[in-house]
């Protein structure tokens, strides 16, 4: 009987050793299994029904919040005084994105056009689309700057044209008209006799070209052959580089299309992406770690050099002609209109810009942009992209509509495109990428602990049996001698 117990103890010791080995192997194999599953579910492939559907028809509700800078002193501005503005809004629009014309290619790329539509959300807005707003008239003040080097007689003729069509230096329209377009006799005239002068052939509005439009033909890598390339742009509208800017580096189309990034990020990883609306590639940098409903994330923000001028940041020289740091001249891709983009309220910009306009108050919480991303998968969990549209305006002799306007980069609107993962998607995300890896991690250490405990207990039992057996043998020998 003692022999059997001894064998059982040895058997338990062997089982414990095997359990420890299994747990140890699991510590190496487990992460590989998880990474393999991430790769399979990150590749753009119609066979991955969940991830493919999420990529093709983004189920997360996105919103565009628009804030107008209502001009309070238009008459005084024409006399050379500082512009005074008040922020109005937000006017919130639900954004619906859908990819169409999805075509897969033999070189592991996929092409598509993403269409976008906007729907006004009164319950989320701080006003109605019928609200009246006053902003600079881009058709007049923008054209004035564009024409300032033409002969004086031509400028006088342009000024006469403005008067003929009753176009003044400032517009007072409803939010809906400013956003999506209004009828203008001047626009009709220019489109008829000078086609191509304006970016739009219909109504003239700040977002007239956004609604029911697409962002161009993107061709991106599927990651089928190399997961490090997934979502990265191969070409845009057939182009592998742009022709808007002055240097090859500035004209590069870098990174992804701005919706997802390759998995397995580190804190040294950056988020490069190409933005057709900004006409350039941009790059966000790691700021800090965080957590969203139990899911670990990395927060990425815009570096201060993003809109710096060439003097403050030499690589940006290609985006010039530049003015102060903090604003990007996009006239080269906006029909030479003197338009600049920046962070809202000139956040992270040269203080000179802030001094020339009254009513601005920048801070990072309200005006900085960020993307919270799950580093293992490259999927954004929370996004807030904030940009401001500005018009460079000044007095131009011969064009009387400009009055005595001081040279100023005038903020007109800023908008925030935001969205975050919620509902069943978060639950699935949390289960597959947080709970299951944690369970696997606990299992591997559990197996090691169980194996070690089994070995120790079995060893103690074996030792006890051995001692008992030895004592019994000694007693037997003593009795035999007696």
UniProtKB/TrEMBL annotation:
<keyword id="KW-1003">Cell membrane</keyword>
<keyword id="KW-1133">Transmembrane helix</keyword>
<dbReference type="InterPro" id="IPR005428">
    <property type="entry name" value="CD36/SCARB1/SNMP1"/>
</dbReference>
<keyword id="KW-0675">Receptor</keyword>
<keyword id="KW-1015">Disulfide bond</keyword>
<dbReference type="GO" id="GO:0008289">
    <property type="term" value="F:lipid binding"/>
</dbReference>
<dbReference type="GO" id="GO:0005737">
    <property type="term" value="C:cytoplasm"/>
</dbReference>
<keyword id="KW-0812">Transmembrane</keyword>
<dbReference type="GO" id="GO:0043654">
    <property type="term" value="P:recognition of apoptotic cell"/>
</dbReference>
<keyword id="KW-0325">Glycoprotein</keyword>
<dbReference type="InterPro" id="IPR002159">
    <property type="entry name" value="CD36_fam"/>
</dbReference>
<comment type="similarity">
    <text>Belongs to the CD36 family.</text>
</comment>
<dbReference type="GO" id="GO:0005044">
    <property type="term" value="F:scavenger receptor activity"/>
</dbReference>
<dbReference type="GO" id="GO:0034381">
    <property type="term" value="P:plasma lipoprotein particle clearance"/>
</dbReference>
<dbReference type="GO" id="GO:0070508">
    <property type="term" value="P:cholesterol import"/>
</dbReference>
<protein>
    <recommendedName>
        <fullName>Scavenger receptor class B member 1</fullName>
    </recommendedName>
</protein>
<dbReference type="GO" id="GO:0005901">
    <property type="term" value="C:caveola"/>
</dbReference>
<dbReference type="GO" id="GO:0030169">
    <property type="term" value="F:low-density lipoprotein particle binding"/>
</dbReference>
<feature type="transmembrane region" description="Helical">
    <location>
        <begin position="12"/>
        <end position="34"/>
    </location>
</feature>
<keyword id="KW-0472">Membrane</keyword>
<dbReference type="GO" id="GO:0033344">
    <property type="term" value="P:cholesterol efflux"/>
</dbReference>
<feature type="transmembrane region" description="Helical">
    <location>
        <begin position="442"/>
        <end position="461"/>
    </location>
</feature>
<dbReference type="Pfam" id="PF01130">
    <property type="entry name" value="CD36"/>
</dbReference>
